[in-house]
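FORM 7B: Structural annotation worksheet

SECTION A. Query
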Amino acid sequence: MKKRKDMLIVLPNFVTGLRMVGTFLLLFTKAFSPAFYVVYSICGISDVLDGFLARRTGATSEFGARLDSVADLLFYTVMMIKILPALVARLPGGIWYWVGGILILRLVSYLVAAVKFRCFASIHTYLNKLTGLCVFIIPYFMRLPFFVLFCMAVCGIATIASVEELVMHICAKEYAADSKALFLKKQ
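SECTION B. Predicted structure
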């Protein structure tokens, strides 16, 4: 029984490790090729799965959270290298100003939280999760005729999510990472 419990504790971190290996493989995979999409999809599924497994098995840990953050940072860095050039070539300049505005909103939100709560604080709201999903699926839409329109919709969702998080930080008396939405009480 103890071996099974030990395996359950290790499993989420193993899945996170798979994402790190997949991210490394993406560096050497041609962007937007079938192999790229397979590895990219595995990385995305593992990102959702590791947290789910950790919560489901009671194996959440500070180490696991930090490992997940490192895996995310590595993944985003590789995606900037692999996907950003194609996005710059395909999207009009106005969207990049919009993205810049969203980034400024995010930075202000993090700054407010850092000053107010004395820590890096990001809230796992439904809109932030939806934004993450929408940003993740952008490469799947690259060749479709409504790609620019889709990216505009993603920017709209990201803007609303960023404003929501900023307002939540401003209004909160204490940091609550798992708040789900501005008008919902924490369960």
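SECTION C. Observations
The chain has a mean pLDDT of 91. The CA atoms of residues 16 and 67 lie 7 Å apart.

SECTION D. Sign-off
Analyst initials: ____
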